[in-house]
Amino acid sequence: MNIVLIGMRGAGKSSISRRLSLLTKRPVISTDLLIEYENDGLGIPGIVAEQGWAAFREQEFRVIEKVTRLDNLIIDCGGGVIVDLDQDGNEIFSERKVSLLRTGGHVVWLKGDIARLAARVQGDPSRPALDAVRSAEEMMRRRLPFYEMAADLVIDIETEKRKRLAKQIAAALAGL
Predict the structure, then answer these.
(1) FRET label pair with 37: which of 7, 63, 77, 78, CA 20 to 30 Å apart?
(2) Number of structural domains, the chain?
(3) Which residues contact 162 (CB under 8 A, 6 or more apart)?
(4) Greatest CA separation found in the chain?
(5) Binding site membership for substrate: which residues?
(6) Which residues does the annotation place in the binding site for Mg(2+)?
(7) What's the predicted TM-score (pTM) here?
(8) Residue ranges of the binding site
(9) Which residues are annotated binding-site positions for ATP?
(10) What are the binding positions for Mg(2+) in this chain (predicted)?
């Protein structure tokens, strides 16, 4: 079984996945890094600028198809893994991606305070820009129910340090 980490931008998925890897002796695969690799090293902001969000979400789906064929991994997902776009470009719950992640994996939502997460990611050049209408907080509030629908396990990231959170996740999943 894979351990799949989901959560909003700035929730600490990458740092917690590395700590969890040390505890569980499982390799980490980052869906965003795989997408960048498949785009000759072009970062996510560049991919989105050149190809648009819809193309990025399709690439994300293809990467998830590949990594979920493997076992005993920690899959570090991008913040928007739980969404796809409808015909009008609006975010909708991604049943197809979440279904793949849940097949053969335990989906762990790293849930944090929206205002703190938004403050953490505002102005980060390594993350795709959010246009003025869709501020970080608005986007995060809109996605909350999608994370709830996707999660097998919810971990509150505000309660502990990253190292303890990794131990908490490992302990919670050990019995499953």
Answers:
(1) 7
(2) 1
(3) 12, 15, 16, 19
(4) 44
(5) 32, 57, 79, 143
(6) 14
(7) 0.90
(8) 10-15, 32, 57, 79, 127, 143
(9) 10-15, 127
(10) 14
